[in-house]
Amino acid sequence: MNPYLSRKYIIGGIFSLIILIYIIRLFFLQIVDQSYKLSASNNVLRYETQFPSRGLIYDRNGNLMVYNEAAYDILVIPRQVEPFDTNQLGLLLDLTKEQIIQRLKAAKSYSNYKPSVFEKQISARNYAPLQEKLYTFKGFFVQTRTLRKYPEKIGAHVLGYIGEVDDELTKKDPYYKPGDYIGISGVEKSYEKVLRGKKGVEIYMVDVHNRIKGRFKEGKFDTIAIHGENITLTIDAKLQAYGEALMKNKRGSIVAIEPATGEVLALVSSPGFDPDLLVGRNRTINYDKLKNDSLLPLFDRPLMARYPPGSTFKLVNALIGLQEGIIRPSTVFSCYGGYTIGNFHMGCHSHRSPLDLKHSIQHSCNAYYANVFRYILDAPKYGTIDNAYSVWRNSVTLFGFGQKLGIDLPHEVNGYIPTLGLYNRIHGNRIKSLNIVSLAIGQGELLMTPLQMANLTATICNKGYYYVPHVIKYTSETYDTVRKPFLVRKYTNIDSVNFEPVIEGMFLGVNGDDGGTGRIAQMPGIEICGKTGTAENPHGEDHSIFIAFAPKDNPKIALAVYVENAGFGATWAAPIASLMIEKYMNDSISRPAMETRILEKNLIDEQP
Amino acid sequence: MNSPKNSIWYDLDWITIGLYFLLVILGWLNIYSAVFNEEQQQGFHFGTRYGKQLIWIGAAFILIVIALVVDSKFYSSFAYIIYGLSILLLIAVLILGTRINGAKSWLVIGSIQFQPAEFTKIATALAMAKYLSHYSLKPEKFKTLVVFFTIIGIPTLFILLQNDTGSALVFFIFILVFYREGMPSVYMLFGLLAVALFILAMLFENYLIILILEGLALLAFYILYRRRKDTILAASILGISSVLAWAIMTYFIPDASVTFLLLLALLFSSLFFVYILFKNKLNGGFVILVVLFSSVFYAYSVDYFFDNILDGYQQRRIKVLLGIQSDPYGAGYNVNQSMIAIGSGGPIGKGYLLGTQTKFKFVPEQSTDFIFCTVGEEWGFVGSALVLGLFLALLMRIIIMAERQKSKFSRIYGYCVASILFFHVAINVGMTIGLAPVIGIPLPFFSYGGSSLWGFTFLLFILLKLDSNRTQLIT
Fold this sequence. Notes:
By secondary structure, chain A is α+β, with helices and mostly antiparallel strands. Chain A is built from 21 helices and 20 strands.
């Protein structure tokens, strides 16, 4: 009756087969393949970063140097934007209609669903009128950010600045996301981890239109933002401000260190800039301006500028000579207007002759040090000049020259102490001590940074050791280990007893009755010790250098002052150093005439 | 109707009714979940989708009563008239209908919206049962095939005109019914070949398809005439010349159309071939040649059809399904999001009302076409396999019911019901898991919507009514 009865099995089979295939497919989708679960949470979860407030920065006396001020970023989600009055928004944000259209387009090309920054860092003042009207612009909303603020416009180089993290770093360090801020220079950079705190996250569930539908698991996985730690610097804000004022209209540096600790009291780079310039919406424009300025205001001179040390280096040669037993404090050399050997002549200014060690420092006698240096190099006990030079160079290196001292600020440079190899190449392996005698008076190939010279001064104060100069005084206990490298004494190989005559000489250089190269730095009531130097400058007027410390016993401050193109060391550098010392020791200035002379001097515009 | 009125209670197939209610209840629970919004809990009211669906489920009871009260003979006797009426309704929709979601398939009378296409499914099933149950029907005759395609062709055409492609395609599943009633197997083979060729034509360049077809033809020749030297020679010439043509083109004239040269080679070698077949009176060989040429022609037609007849969005959907195009934010968006929702359900799901993908509207049309996503996300593999299992159980039960009918009309109608339900389940679930093209047709008993619920309910309960009279002969 029904010839096709068996076909019911085929039809039933087709039904079963398709359903079976679907169940197998479901098995793969739901159980085997995990990627759909990930896609699902990417779909539905929105991670809202909670930005911590950045740590504040204080000076050594607890004066606020950097704080935060709220600023507002306007964000936009293109999908939610409804037609709006571009003129009104333009007025509120100070943008043209074209800019608005162009920015919307850029946001759209990033993502139609995700927020992108439409306008950055609107100040609290400009935000107020905007806030009232923002609700009329659908799709626009606000994210609070903090901007760095500076009560005193000082210390731009030390403090550094923050800016948006670059793409490279966001790939390397998962903590940073595009648009985050990070310390780019100065303390902001070196203590980024301390200052930044820890970002928190709030996880929301969003629907397909990116509208928040609630907290993910009632906020179980949310984390709170932890604010950054405050930092107290070793910088003395008053001294820093005073130093910057003295250096106004001059090129150069001041580095002041507390010898007993290695704490940097002031770090002046001149010309400097107002730290406010590198904050906020005009940062890029201002940065480009500063970068293209011929006076290089962004150049951090105390750490990055390299100069020959000039006569200040005589102190080092004196110390090495004493330590190596080549001279004694009573050793005298004569000087008849300089140092003359055969055809060779190194000039010297007029002073009485012969001089012993301390008076050679007082009068900065070139001939004395030409003798000392040559006696070291040619001393029979070393056998060859190579060995002698190595001993000398090693001793110099132990003062921290020719290497980064390790200050807790970025961009420090090495300086340069030539090796004998360099001279052998020049002089064809028959190097004589006379060939390199300019090293005796700190000329020639030597290059040192102002920081290194200030550190030399501190080392002399400490009679043989120094602490690595640093700007961190303290922060929270959590991060206290950052101070560890600065609590270790670094020893030179000079015995402390050998420092006595050198210090005596530096004292006489400022306070000697019969004249001294640094007498201009003399200050009644404070026993200032100092040494002048003149860095030869093949490109123009020599640079004026003065290193000094005070008081003579138990010194409180050691400093190096550099004034570029200012000629002899005593003229400008010495009075600046003296005023700095007075300011730091007495917190007042008793020599208004000198102060006025310095403050009003414009060395930059006088340049040809 | 000879049995006493209350005996229908005992003659009803309660297994089917049980499965029906289970599916309707599960469907409603999932619509509730798909519409449920944690933040705006409105409480229950009839303005919401789950509220409306509950009204429609209630109203379905009236339809059930009507379906069961009407005499079985009515369905058989009035089958063609009902069919004619439904076609008139389709025409009425074209003139008076309202466009919703791009398809002009709705009749709006007062506050009631109604999709006549749902009713047409029942009418066409009845008409098909009526026609195929005719005592003098000769399934192997070509005329039967023509009438068969006419019956399904008319509603297909009008529904296509309404721009409701999904519903229009439903009727082609009646091939299964025809097959059960004696359609020659060779039609089925041709059908499968057509489908396979369609997919191949989409996936590959034409010259490759010609090569594949030639290869198949050569294989057929070899199996048929492997003892005859001259046919083998002819077949070799066909093959070698094609390969040569292809090779020459590839190496020497890379710019020229490979397909064109292949076609030429095919044509010339076939002439020689025809001569040999003719000389030796080998009719089977002609069949192979005709199939070969019509297949090549068909492959070209598919391309033409695809490029010129189908709309851009339909082309994209098919391409996305076949994996030619990847477009997670365009045509593939729905499927991609749907697979994410289902895949994220895992083995046991996220729990009832706890699905995130469906709740936050990442999946479009979640209470209608993509309701299965809610099942997949909230009930996981266990739940979705169970729902599919329930559907399979219903389909099998319908086949069993159909096969126990004394009347041929009832049996055929039963297969029509099974086929329609199968097509909807296969396409609807298939599209949510990326195995079928996205043509919006509802999941029976699950998807939100009065028309489809009523349509499927009526369709099923007519069968239950017929089944209650299974011992009688209905003509």
